[in-house]
Design a protein that fits this description.
By secondary structure, the chain is α/β, with parallel strands linked by helices. Helix content is 40%, strand content 20%. It folds into two domains: 4-118 and 298-315, 2-Layer Sandwich (Nucleotidyltransferase, domain 5), CATH 3.30.420.40; 127-293, ATPase, nucleotide binding domain (Nucleotidyltransferase, domain 5).
Length: 336
């Protein structure tokens, strides 16, 4: 019998709904992106949660109608319950609980980071054991994945995430939000070695990251000029991007050498960065390790990765009750 798993994602500013099938894989996924945050240079939590409240039900109806199923046809309801913005998470979780309760279907809470990791499983079978580099606006982590449901965080940022660094640096350069795509576009016209920005924790012997010092270095560099010309903007963007990509790839390479895995996955919004993919492929591919990443549309927050993750929870009989709560912060944990 075909099982249908509903996935709901509202951890930040994207409202997303998807259906994953036990026989066909991803059936449909829809996402509504909130554009109003651009003028503020970052996501405003109150605006984000209110937008989810207006968008989630209509988006759910579109998805259900497109698949041609009713509540009774669902086998389980998966939803991101953390980490993320508390208000945004509560909208999605409350909606998921209502659907689960009214349809008498099991509720499955998915950790947002697990969703990003398993975005790689949407279109191809993942291989284990493996390492995953999750890089986004809120997270930068290296995770050893023994199998689905068995995770160990082996490296994490001590302050800012790589995606946050991209956003803040873009703002310093007068570039639009989100900063990652804007910097990547401008950086193509600049010199990667124009400025020697810091690679924090390079000699620490650990797999942790730090990007707060890079933001400060870029700010001081920008302030040292009377005017930021387009050429200068491009050089700073290229050099800053290279500093981020360089340390991400270097730590990833060390992790692969340490854990001796044969498969390496990148995930999260920053995984869409072409320069990062290029450097990861060169450094880790040269070790004879297979490098994987999701399609671009599955790198940023989406419900397809939540529905896919929830399917595996359902497959192994791991569900939650209606007392499930949200959490704004928290490392991924094993559940098998």
């Amino acid at each position: 019998m075909e099982e249908y798993i509903l996935g709901i994602e509202t951890s930040c500013d994207d409202t997303a709904v998807a259906i994953f099938s036990s026989t066909r894989g991803l059936v449909v996924h829809k996402k509504a992106t909130q554009l109003e945050h651009g003028i503020y240079g970052g996501v405003v939590p109150e605006i984000a949660s209110r937008s989810h409240m207006k968008t989630l039900l209509p988006l759910f109806n579109v998805v259900m109608n497109e698949v041609g199923i009713e509540l009774g046809n669902l086998s389980a309801v998966g939803v991101t319950h953390g980490p993320g913005l508390t208000g945004s998470l509560l909208v999605g979780l409350s909606f998921a609980k209502a659907i689960a309760y009214s349809s008498s279907k099991p509720l499955i809470g998915v950790h947002h980071i697990e969703g990003h990791i398993l975005a790689n499983a949407i279109e191809e079978k993942m291989n284990f054991p493996s390492l995953s580099l999750v890089v986004s606006g809120g997270h930068t982590q290296l995770i050893y994945v023994e199998d689905i449901g068995r995770y160990e965080v082996v490296g994490s940022t001590r302050d800012d995430a790589a995606g946050e660094a991209f956003d803040k640096i873009a703002k310093l350069l007068g570039l639009p939000f989100p900063g990652g795509p804007a910097i990547e576009k401008v950086a193509k016209k600049g010199k990667r070695d124009a400025f020697d920005f810091p690679r924090a924790l390079r000699g620490s012997g650990r797999l942790d990251f730090s990007f707060s010092g890079l933001k400060t270095a870029v700010r001081l560099k920008v302030e040292s000029f009377d005017e930021i010309t387009p050429e200068l903007q491009a050089d700073i963007a290229a050099s800053a991007q290279e500093a981020i990509v360089d340390i991400l790839a270097e730590k990833s390479q060390k992790a692969v050498e340490s854990f001796k895995v044969k498969h390496f996955y990148i995930a999260g919004g920053v995984a869409a960065n072409g320069r990062l993919r290029e450097e990861i492929l060169e450094r880790i591919g040269s070790l004879g390790v297979d490098v994987h990443w999701p399609e671009l549309k599955f790198c940023t927050d989406n419900a397809a990765m939540i529905a896919c993750s929830a399917y595996y929870h359902f497959l192994y009989g791991h569900t939650h009750d209606l007392t499930l709560n949200t959490f704004p912060r928290g490392d991924i944990e094993s559940w098998r």
